[in-house]
Write a structure and sequence with these properties.
54% helix; mainly alpha; 125 residues
């Protein structure tokens, strides 16, 4: 009987040692994965920093102005191109399909009432 208990104790000791080694190797595997992920994160951060530096270079106003001058044929605006709102003509009178004259739409120049105060009252129900 004592010999059987010794065999059970020795097999339990061997099983616990095997379990401890499996935990150790699993932990080492996870540590390697974490190290790989940290290296990947650092590479991605470096790539982001490079892209930000390139963007800052490309977004400089003097470089953009040089590109505009080189590739686009833009002319400066002439004073004759500017117009005041009062100089614009009113809309023409419109006709509907059967030839009736429609009232011209109100323009800001023609508007005399305040839009916040209604001129007509709605009927009560």
């Amino acid at each position: 009987m004592i010999r059987f208990l010794h065999m059970v104790a020795i097999s339990a000791l061997i099983a616990s040692a095997g379990y401890a080694y499996s935990i150790k190797y699993e932990t080492l595997s996870h540590v390697e994965q974490v190290a790989k992920l940290k290296a990947k994160v650092q590479r991605e951060r470096d790539a982001i920093a490079v892209l930000q530096a390139e963007w800052q270079y490309l977004d400089r106003p003097d470089r953009l102005q040089d590109a505009v001058n080189q590739h686009l044929d833009l002319q400066p605006m002439k004073i004759q191109q500017l117009a005041r709102l009062s100089e614009l003509p009113n809309r023409p009178v419109r006709d509907d399909e059967i030839g009736r004259l429609l009232e011209p739409t109100a323009t800001p120049k023609d508007k005399t009432t305040d839009a916040r105060t209604p001129t007509t009252q709605t009927p009560k129900r």
